[in-house]
Amino acid sequence: MLVFLAACLIPSFVLSWLTVAAMRRLAPRIGLLDQPAERKVHRRPTPLGGGLGIWAGVVLPLAAAQLAAWWLMRHPQHGKWLPAELLAHVPGAVYRAGQMWALIAGGTILTVMGLLDDYRNLPWPPRLLLQTFVATGLVAAGFRATLFVPVPVLTSVVTVLWFLTLINALNFLDNMDGLTAGIGSIASAVFATIMLTCLDEPRWLVGGTLLLLTGATAGFLWHNWPPARIFMGDCGSHFVGLMLAAMTVQGTFYESTPATDTGRHVVLAPLCVLAVPLYDFCSVIWIRLREGRSPFHPDKSHFSHRLVELGLSPRNAVMTIHLATLTTGLAGILLYRVPDWTSALLIGALVLCVLAIVAILETAPRLARRSDDEVPPQSATPCSGEHDQPPASP
User: Fold this and answer.
1) Looking at residues 256-278, what average pLDDT do you find?
2) How many other C-beta atoms can be found within 10 angstroms of the C-beta atom of residue 92?
3) Does residue 318 sit in helix, strand or coil?
4) pLDDT single digits (tens) 114-151
5) Which residues of 136-154 are buried (b: 16+ CB within 10 A; e: fewer)?
6) 210 phi, psi to nearest 5 deg
7) Domain boundaries, the chain
8) Contact between 211 and 8 (Cβ < 8 Å)
9) Cβ–Cβ contacts within 10 Å for residue 200, how many?
10) What is the DSSP letter of 335?
11) Where are the alpha helices (DSSP H) in the chain?
12) How many CB atoms lie within 10 A of CB 357?
């Protein structure tokens, strides 16, 4: 297991780190910069395109692994050095090759679209249309949630909506230095833990892909931790959201074998792990619609901005959200340690309590501003995933 972890985490981290380092130098030369503006806080032009490092850290090792599996199927004598438990899954990796190449293609399409969006600030309708096209293509390739109902149309529609929700949730969440990369790294690590340790047999392909995402986001985070030296941009947030959506759909959460039949309540694990970003996404959409604005219009309605308005530094606000996500993520793992729905509901109540704390912290600054007519402090950082970027280093 340790060899497998190292084989996934180290190459993805190194590739991501190197690519982001290169983009920090290349982006200013090609004009890929986020410029200061009236509704932005950062004072210096800051490079964009760091998400290309995340793409490279996931796609290049994943493509290499698929090619290696195809080679080993044709030349099995060259695979004797591999651990037997991994070698036994090579045929399965080849069997899933079509789906994985479809995922690579879909992720690349969204990454390119995000890069163009970082350049030109594309309107949201064509972006949403392309996201729907990619999600529908992946569903056609076999990425489909089961939902325990024999209605293919329903499961397909729900899966497409899941893709769109996570893609945009991670994009909306990209509003402070280190936030989306940290959330992506925590969530992918928790899901990888479930895939590799909580089931009857490890799901090496899905777990390995999640580990690649963990390493790639960590490699980018090295450059993006406050104060950020480069921004992820839409090309990164769209890719991270797509990968998390695809792997949670493709992963096996519930098994009916006698040895591991912990109950169907374990299918709640993705909702637990991603509870904080999903809540932030839904609450921001609700606030914007309630105020008669476009749901894609950038503002400071996010949880991170509320924490800064309460007096936290942007770095501490980001760390608070990371810890909240880790808490709900551990609750997702805990689902595999309880036997029935009664215990699962207690875990669900724990997650709801965390979200209730988030809701209270979100509401407090709005109430204070409404009563005292205070101006939000200038240390708050606008939403980078929606074309407002955090402050660059002084």
Assistant:
1) 80
2) 13
3) helix
4) 999 988 888 889 999 999 999 999 999 999 887 777 77
5) bebbebebbbeeeeeeeee
6) -65, -35
7) 2-372
8) yes
9) 13
10) G
11) 2-30, 51-74, 84-87, 90-95, 97-120, 124-140, 152-173, 179-197, 204-224, 233-250, 269-273, 275-290, 303-309, 314-334, 341-372
12) 12
pLDDT at residue number 259:
54
Measured CA distances, 318 to 42, 226, 356, 364 (Å): 17, 9, 18, 18
Instruction: For 4-28, give one letter per residue: b (16+ CB within 10 A) or e.
Output: bbebbbebbbebbbebbbebbeebe
Asked if residue 288 has pLDDT above 50, the reply is yes
Of the pLDDT bands very low, low, confident and very high (cuts 50, 70, 90), residue 18 is: very high
* 233: pLDDT strictly greater than 80: yes
CB under 8 Å to 243, separation ≥6 — which residues? Answer: 58, 103, 107, 188, 209, 213
Tens of pLDDT, residue by residue over 291-328, are 888 888 777 778 888 888 888 888 999 999 999 999 99
* pLDDT at residue 394 greater than cutoff 60: no
What integer is the mean pLDDT of 164-170?
Answer: 95
Tell me which residue of 162, 99, 112 sits closest to 135, measured CA to CA: 162
Question: What is the SS3 assignment for 233?
Answer: helix
**β-pair partners for 33:** 47
Structure tokens at 231: 């921004």
Closest C-alpha to 380, from 176, 170, 169: 176
Burial degree of 289 (CB within 10 A; 0-12, 13-18, 19+): exposed
